[in-house]
Inverse folding.
């Protein structure tokens, strides 16, 4: 057997470090943010503040899980922000009949739109960007038409509780658990990854790619609906303008978590960390009294840094 030279061993160690850096880049970014937050303000490293971060993460977090499932198939869902608004309006109107009616109505309407989106993408062979951009406009237009652009106030009920206390975090944890079971414990998870890796090969191998696409877009719409219900319960009023820009936040969370936008690659844990990183950025800026409009700049900078870091490490390993 040929002995391993010092140069070869050194290369192996460098490759191992490079692979570890790529694998745990999201964790490194999170730890860097924790260090910065601890350094700039003593209010950051407290249990109360971390609970606030988790609560603030919950809405985008739930929606990012649905976006993640879509991206794994090589698609994109630009309609989640508008679906949040539609969910808020339908839920608020339904709560006047009863909380269960509001929740069921919201999930039913958004789920149906999500299923229709998946059908159009799969059977119409249309680009997901175009289809979901249409959903963005349609859902927002329906929400504005129903309300004539006016707010809908919520009647007092137990429905308001889901926006307070530990309920948002608990709901987010439940959605994460369901996504984990789908991706890691059921054949459906392997089919989702396979569809994103190569849809033609997946179809030839016997996977019903149409059913997979309908499923992920339906789940994304349902996640947006849940986010809208939490948002409405927290604010106690529904507005048809809710959710603007949330589609970009969910995509950013997936990218920060290492998800490949071309599909087939990504980890659920990375998306959760990506959401927390986005929220932590805003939290640090808020605690230090920085103009909130800097949040957009901070998110963009974090995306650049994260993607550039991974790209350089990947390129240097070739």
């Amino acid at each position: 057997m040929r002995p391993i030279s010092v140069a070869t061993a050194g290369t192996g160690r460098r490759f191992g470090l490079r692979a570890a850096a790529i694998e745990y880049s999201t964790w490194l970014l999170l730890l860097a943010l924790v260090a910065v937050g601890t350094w700039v303000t003593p209010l950051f490293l407290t249990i109360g503040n971390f609970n606030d971060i988790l609560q603030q993460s919950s809405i985008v977090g739930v929606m990012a899980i649905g976006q993640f499932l879509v991206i794994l198939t090589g698609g994109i869902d630009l309609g989640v922000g508008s679906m949040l608004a539609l969910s808020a309006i339908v839920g608020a109107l339904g709560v006047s009949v009863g909380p269960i009616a509001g929740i069921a109505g919201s999930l039913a309407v958004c789920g149906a739109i999500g299923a229709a989106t998946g059908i159009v993408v799969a059977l119409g062979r249309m680009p997901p960007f175009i289809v979901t951009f249409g959903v963005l406009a349609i859902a927002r237009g329906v929400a504005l038409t129903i309300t004539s652009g006016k707010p809908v106030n919520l009647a007092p009920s137990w429905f308001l509780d889901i926006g307070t206390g530990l309920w948002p975090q608990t709901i987010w944890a439940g959605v994460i658990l369901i996504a984990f079971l789908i991706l890691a414990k059921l054949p459906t998870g392997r089919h989702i990854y396979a569809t994103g890796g190569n849809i033609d090969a997946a179809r030839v191998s016997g996977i019903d790619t149409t059913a997979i696409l309908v499923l992920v877009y339906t789940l994304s719409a349902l996640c947006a609906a849940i986010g809208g219900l939490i948002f409405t319960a927290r604010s106690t009023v529904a507005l048809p303008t809710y959710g603007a820009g949330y589609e970009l936040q969910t995509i950013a969370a997936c990218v920060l978590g290492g998800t490949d936008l071309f599909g087939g690659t990504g980890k659920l844990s990375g998306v959760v960390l990506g959401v927390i990183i986005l929220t932590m950025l805003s939290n640090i800026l808020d605690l230090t009294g920085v103009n909130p409009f800097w949040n957009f700049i901070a998110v963009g900078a974090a995306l650049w840094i994260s993607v550039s870091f991974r790209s350089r490490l990947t390129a240097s390993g070739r």
Remarks:
- The two ends are 26 Å apart (CA to CA).
- The first helix runs from residue 6 to 23.
